[in-house]
Structures are given as C-alpha cells and as structure tokens.
Amino acid sequence: MQLKPLQFGGVEIGLPVVLAPMAGYTDAAMRSLCLERGAGAVYTELTSAEGIRRDSKKTFQVLASGPAEHPIAGHIFGRDPKAMVKAARFIEQTGRFDWIDINCGCPVKKVVSRGAGAALLKELPLMGEIIAKVKSAVSLPVSVKTRIGFNSDTAGPLEIARVVEESGADMVAVHARLARNFHGGDPDWQALGEMKQALNIPLIGNGGVYAPADAQRMVEVAGVDGVMVARGAIGNPWIFEQIKNKFLAEPQSSQSKIVQSQRSLRLCEGYIGIQTRRDMMAEHLRRLVELNEEKQHDSGKPKKYSPEQAACIQFRTHIPYYVKGLFDKKQLLMKLATLMSVEALLEEIDVLMEKNR
C-alpha cells in the first residue's frame, strides 16, 4: 500500500511522513534537519496557550521557526477555550505557520494535572468546544493531536473520532496507545484502522514507528493517510528518507519496479555510517548554538550559560540516540556534565568512535 499526497484545508503534504511534536526535542534545530532529510511536515514543541495569553517571552521562544520550515503547525495546549482561541489567533497572525494543531493527547503529569492534553479525553464536551471555537476563530486549517483513549474506562477511539470531526477539525493525528500507558506496550494499530474507517477527515497514525518497515506495516494494517514519527527520529533524522525509499521501493506492478541505487537501498535498510552520524551531530550542535544566540539576543537578559554551553546541555538528550550501537555509551554519558563546548564534546565523541572503528 502506498502513501499519497495529503491535503486538508489549504495544506498539502507531498509525502505524509511527519515529525511528531516532542517537548525538549523538536525545536527549530531538529525540525530543520528532519525537513532537509525528507520529513513531509513538522510541528512546534508543545506550546502553552496560557503562556501566549500572558505574553510570556519563554513561551514565544517555543514558537520560534525558520523561514524554510514548511509545512509547519503551531502546536498548542490548554483547557480554557478563550485562551486557546487567543493562542490560535496569535499563531495565525505571525504568518509563519501553515496550520494550527490542538493537543488533546499529551500524558505528561504537569499537563494532565492542569486538565489539558490527554485530560481532555475525559471531558469530550470541553474538548469539542475548544476545537469548535478555535476553528471558528481562525482561517488557518485546524488539526488535533490525540490518542485512542485515556484509559479503558473512558471514551473509546470511535467516540473520540466523532467528537473531533463533528467539532470541525480538518485533520487528526492519533497516537495508538492509551494515555495512561504513555509509550509502553504495543501500539494498537487496529484501533487506528477503526477510527480511519469512521472518519471523513484525514488521519495520521502515530506510535511504534522506529524503522521503515514499521511505517509500512502501520499503513497496511490501519490504512492511515499518513505516518507520524516521534522517538524514532531522535538522533535519526535519516528515518524520513529511509521511509520514503521504503515506499518507493514497493513494486508498482509485476512488470514495473523502481530501481534504487546502492545508497538508497542501504538507507532503506537503516544503515548510517559512523562518519555520517558524527557529521550530523556537529551540524545539529551548530544549529543549536545559533538558536540559542537568537533566543538570548531576543530576551535581552544575561543568562547563566552562553549560547554554546546551553546548546551542549540541550544536546545531552540527543546524544544517546545518535551514538546508539556505535560503542558503550556509559563512558560518554558520565562525562557529559563536564563537556561544555562544542569542540570538547565532539573531541570526546571522536576518541570513542576511533576506538570502536
């Protein structure tokens, strides 16, 4: 089964394999790397509607995006319809976003305890009200990021699908696990398929995609209109090109097959060389430094860490994924707290890589 270009509202995603919003990871540095390597679209990190309403500079920085980041969704969360409307209008007025996405699926305690994110799955009337009011307040398309349910005792996939569509959403992305399970257990792609059959709007499937074969199986099992990659993209921006090659490699007919280059075949199989990974880490760090320079310039306040130091600290969560399988990570992870410059960090990585070539 092939993925087709996805359209909703005025948005068109050529190959609907998209990067999921992940707090602490999917800033402009990571998003730009993934877009350059085949991601069909990206989302901002989880952005507080209350923070926007209160003119929080820190919140506005979460929405920072580059001119080449398209298609991109402004991803917001909250439980107050008025705050969500104001946030949506602000995002539209920036002129930097292609659509607005409402989070109704984040299971993190500090979000759920505020009655937002996945907590809205226990209050479907409120969830529907937020979607409807945001939709009526802006001209940009509106989508929803949600889950198949909160737990086994709350609303199920079909009821959630009905509320999302009837409230006016143009598209929905669904994580195929209950919120209470976070990222644990197998994703229920069958539930995604049931939701897809019940909906007239496009559905992007999320959960359990770590390799091209996973994306292919999700499409085959659930019939989704697109695939969303989350943790599978951390330290692995190549996954989007890999998935693209996987779908392109499928025979169009018994007589017509797409012949791939050796490089494409290796990408499709997930092979990424040591030097390629090292170069990507250097580029990721460079972009993080630039991003922190912009943030500190905009804030106008002295910071505890320089832009380079801040970038090295932020990159600590990415490193274990970039070096996975290359060498024993313990030695590197134990030293991370002392590696506060890009040069020192890359030198340590080079030493470990050389030992394990």
Report the CATH topology name of the largest domain.
TIM Barrel
Q: Please state the second-level CATH architecture of the largest domain.
A: Alpha-Beta Barrel
CATH superfamily (homologous) name of the largest domain? Aldolase class I
Which residues form runs of ≥5 with pLDDT under 50?
Answer: 252-269
H/I helix tally: 16
Backbone structural class: alpha/beta
- The count of strands amounts to 11
Distance N terminus to C terminus?
Answer: 39 Å
Descriptive report:
With 357 residues, the chain is of the alpha/beta class. The chain has two domains: 6-268, Aldolase class I (TIM Barrel, Alpha-Beta Barrel), CATH 3.20.20.70; 274-355, no CATH class. The chain has helices at 28-36, 49-53, 57-62, 81-94, 109-112, 124-137, 157-166, 189-198, 212-222, 239-248, 262-268, 274-299, 307-315, 319-322, 330-335, 342-355; strands at residues 6-8, 11-13, 17-19, 42-43, 47-48, 72-77, 99-104, 142-147, 171-175, 203-206, 226-229. Strands 3, 4, 5, 6, 7, 8, 9, 10 and 11 form a nine-stranded parallel beta sheet that branches. It has a two-stranded antiparallel ribbon with strand order 1-2. The radius of gyration is 20 Å and the shape is globular. The two termini are 39 Å apart. The relative contact order is 0.11.
Give the secondary structure arrangement, pairings included:
Layout: E1 6-8, E2 11-13, E3 17-19, H1 28-36, E4 42-43, E5 47-48, H2 49-53, H3 57-62, E6 72-77, H4 81-94, E7 99-104, H5 109-112, H6 124-137, E8 142-147, H7 157-166, E9 171-175, H8 189-198, E10 203-206, H9 212-222, E11 226-229, H10 239-248, H11 262-268, H12 274-299, H13 307-315, H14 319-322, H15 330-335, H16 342-355
Parallel strand pairs: 3-11, 4-6, 5-6, 6-7, 7-8, 8-9, 9-10, 10-11
Antiparallel strand pairs: 1-2
